[in-house]
From TrEMBL:
Keywords: Cytoplasm, Disulfide bond, Oxidoreductase, Peroxidase, Redox-active center
Entry annotated with the keyword Aminoacyl-tRNA synthetase: no
Catalytic center residues: C50
PROSITE patterns: THIOREDOXIN_2 (PS51352)
Protein name, UniProt field: Thioredoxin peroxidase
Cellular component, GO annotation: cytosol
Limits of the Thioredoxin domain: 3-176
Role played: Thiol-specific peroxidase that catalyzes the reduction of hydrogen peroxide and organic hydroperoxides to water and alcohols, respectively. Plays a role in cell protection against oxidative stress by detoxifying peroxides.
């Protein structure tokens, strides 16, 4: 599994569903210099754990937006599958009301670039992705700053849902560091004391 933290987030240009409509050319780079990005991958549309996550991100969308964060979901399903899922009522197994972009990584290149594909895979001499086994995305999440650098990543196995609160906490920690230059200790959350990256700063924090 690749560690992308500290590196440039792989850009992409793909079909996506945004606010219930199919967009032909959706790119990560459009947010460069403008917004933070929380990019998360999930295994499949029309499944069981996935809708709990996607709906939770939608329910918390206002909290991300007030922090200047663009939420983006992605899976290896087609844009037509995304569109159908978004336009299916929640009591029928759909995610109606999800407005943030859902990227269609149909050719698996985005999941491959972020190293979250479940199957063993390689690239042949013609540049085609060759896989063995089912090829879907693990539950990867990447926090990308306004300069396009990955600052946090976490990858869960398929049965293990993520925490929206933790994703927001990581955004808060990054923004706190950027604004004040203070580092954020174990279990830090917005409003709590942080510390300066020095022996004196640590000693002051621990003495409180």
């Amino acid at each position: 599994m690749s560690v992308l933290v500290g590196k440039k987030a792989p850009d992409f240009n793909a079909q996506a569903v945004v606010k219930g409509n199919i967009v032909e050319h959706f790119s990560l780079s459009q947010f460069h210099g403008e917004k933070y990005v929380v990019l998360f991958f999930y295994p499949k549309d029309f499944t069981f754990v996935c809708p709990t996550e996607l709906i939770a991100f939608q329910d918390a969308l206002g909290q991300f937006e007030e922090r200047d964060v663009q939420v983006i979901g992605a899976s290896t399903d087609t844009e037509f599958s995304h569109w159908a899922w978004v336009n299916t009522a929640r009591d029928k197994g759909g995610i109606e009301g999800v407005e943030y972009p859902l990227v269609a990584d149909t050719n698996k290149t985005i999941s491959s670039a972020y190293d979250v594909l479940t199957a063993d895979y390689d690239v042949d001499i013609d540049g085609n992705l060759v896989t063995s086994g089912e090829c879907v995305a693990y539950r990867g999440l990447f926090l990308i700053d306004k300069e396009g650098i990955v600052r946090h990543q976490i990858v869960n196995d398929l049965p293990l849902g993520r925490s929206i609160d933790e994703a927001i906490r990581m955004v808060d920690a990054l923004q706190h560091f950027e604004q004040y230059g203070e580092v954020c200790p174990m279990n830090w959350s917005k409003g709590k004391d942080a510390m300066t990256a020095s022996h004196e700063g640590v000693a002051t924090y621990l003495s409180k």
